[in-house]
Amino acid sequence: MLGKEFLFFNRENIDLPDDFKELQLQCESCKRCSLFKTRRNVVFGKGNKNAILMLVGEAPGEKEDIKGEPFVGAAGELLTKMLKAINLTRDDVYIANVLKCRPPQNRDPTPEEIEACKGYLFKQIEIINPKIILALGRHAIKFLTDYSGPLSAIRGNVFYYKGIKVIPTYHPAALIYHQEWKRGSWEDLKLARRLYDEALKPQMNTD
Fold first, then answer.
1. Number of domains in the chain
2. Which CATH number do you get for residue 39?
3. Coil, strand or helix at 135
4. Nearest Cα to 4, choosing from 169, 181, 155, 192?
5. What is the DSSP letter of 95?
6. Three-state secondary structure call for residue 21
7. Three-state SS at 133
8. What is the pLDDT of residues 94-127, one digit of tens each?
9. In terms of Cα–Cα distance, which of 57, 60, 48 is closest to 100?
């Protein structure tokens, strides 16, 4: 049984191209905030542009900044294993972050940086139009649901962003240091898989 569903108001989107490639090119030359001065690479996102499930994290880390891809460090390895546990691969999903550039020393994103960068993720979600978003960690959860309280209070619930189901869960980096959270994370993953299978049914009926 799913938890209570919460509905939040739609958010405004800044004027950005509807073409995914154009959007990426614009993002890669972005100078909307000061992070462009310290980044090595813009980490736009990667995966299936027709994904049913989208994963949203916080911001690139050092390894992501070097490679230009999301979740390639230790947290990325764990994320790959988490997907495998529910019979999915990175090719099945799309992975992006709230911020597209690494904050120095992996510090938390500032409100100004999030404000400057938010349109890129909003537009990615609009174009991909997933059925489910797995929000990884407090910054992604706040971004998509406006909730900023303890994760333990909302786990197991389904939020909505513009009609898309949003499942809040722990960031893989946090799970590395807090083994006791892995059981809750597993429950969230099983919920995501259940909703994923439900989303597949209409597609199977039309084949």
1. 1
2. 3.40.470.10
3. strand
4. 155
5. E
6. helix
7. strand
8. 999 999 999 999 999 999 999 999 999 999 999 9
9. 60
